Amino acid sequence: MVSEIIEEKEGIEDIKRLNLWRRYQSTLSFILYVAVRRLFPKSRLRIEHSIGQGFYCYLEHRLSIRDLQNLEKVMKEIIAKGIPIERLLCTKQEAMRLFARDGLKDKITLLRNIDLKKIFLYRLLGHYNSFLVPPFDFTNKSPLFYIKDFPPGFVMVFPHWRNLKKLPEFSPQFRLARIFYEYLEWVKVLGITDVGELNSAIKKGRGAEIIRVSEALHEKKIVYIADRITNEKRKIVLIAGPSSAGKTTFTKRLAVQLLVNGLRPLIISVDDYFFPHSKTPRDEKGRLDFESIKAVDLEKLNQDMLEIIEGKRVILPKFNFKTGERERGPVVRLPPYGVVLIEGIHCLNDELTYKIPIFIKFKIYISALTQLNIDDHNRISTTDTRLLRRIVRDTHYRGYDLKGVLCRWGSVRSGEERNIYPFQEQADEMFNSALLYEPAVLKKYCLPILKRIKRDEVLYEEAKRLLDFFTLFNELSDRDVPSNSILREFIGGSSFVY
């Protein structure tokens, strides 16, 4: 009971840190926009996905190194002056008039297609903008950042959420950048890059078409990955990704496509190789640390994999999460044309399969790498996409309450940052499990859950942030979501058994 209270307290502190970090980001985004308007008044700034400890941004024309240096200089001048950022409550019509004055067509499209009568705007040096998470009231409250060239755009790097007083080193993630670019090409197929355009399409009755094309693009990528594995004759496929990325459904769909190619997949979970609780390592606070690679019986896992690929009969373990003990699992033998699919958070780390020859391994990183933006200056966080999936799944199907899901999220993220993200660039392939339409479908599932948090509760601010997010989306029925969709892993109705 005492440990649960401590964990809840730590979880609430993590939520506060994350929200402070989001305000830091909004403030820097606003300052960046104002600096761009000053230096390149006719250019359209778009703030995109998270990459390399910052936001990837681009203008309609390529900026030189000198341009980027000048941009950083102007931003630092605005920050140093500690200029007030004013908050104004406007009617929708007044906001649209102000946005029209500055040529912010994306924000006008959004407002036209949502049912809001009033909206908060923010003013800095005569420029107006809107943000889902409000910026700070003074520019000097977000002092740390730098800009790095990352063609065809640039990255604005800022502090990590756990330490806003220190700037991280820029880590270019070229493979991750390519998968974001691939998704951008997908959304171009649908003609939708912003929430306003998605809402407009839903209002016009294109919802079913958007679902079908989005799912077809997923299937096309899975077929491509299956073909690579087949053509390269890999025997062990390692699949890793953060929480609620959709790893289980992806693995099952990949297995189907491998069957189509004449291969016989055998699916194995790393979790079944956990040590018993008596041998599980503990973290710095004395808690069982299941996210440590040392919680896995690496010797047995590697020995079993070697025997399996040699064609021997192997008794697999089965971990009982209720008792904390490892039990006898099924007896398996890899058939002719067999391939082993291994799923687990450490699968990109070569330490997990240290005895397996590298040339027979194929690594896949999967995450919900959201490319749909709210508008040009407000991105949809990849981690928020996964959090919303987790809220629906864990409250509907795993017996957790919302408070528990929210309070654990900071700890989950920390584990991912230690055990998954450092290895993602080592993947042979990356799969983006985000679906363009999913927030519009998740809306009807999430709203009743989030509304359970009352105004006087400590988690109200976080629940309201997510509720405000859904006010920007027109609801879309899940009727046309296919039974093998990754989204079905979270909302139910899947044709797969989990």
Automatic annotation (TrEMBL):
Stretches that traverse the bilayer: none
Statement: the UniProt record of this protein carries the keyword Transferase: yes
Keyword Transferase assigned: yes
Pfam families in the record: PRK
GO MF annotation list: ATP binding; kinase activity
Domain AAA+ ATPase: 233-393
Keywords: Kinase, Transferase
PANTHER family membership: URIDINE KINASE (PTHR10285)
Name listed for the protein in its UniProt record: Nucleoside kinase
Organism: candidate division WOR-3 bacterium
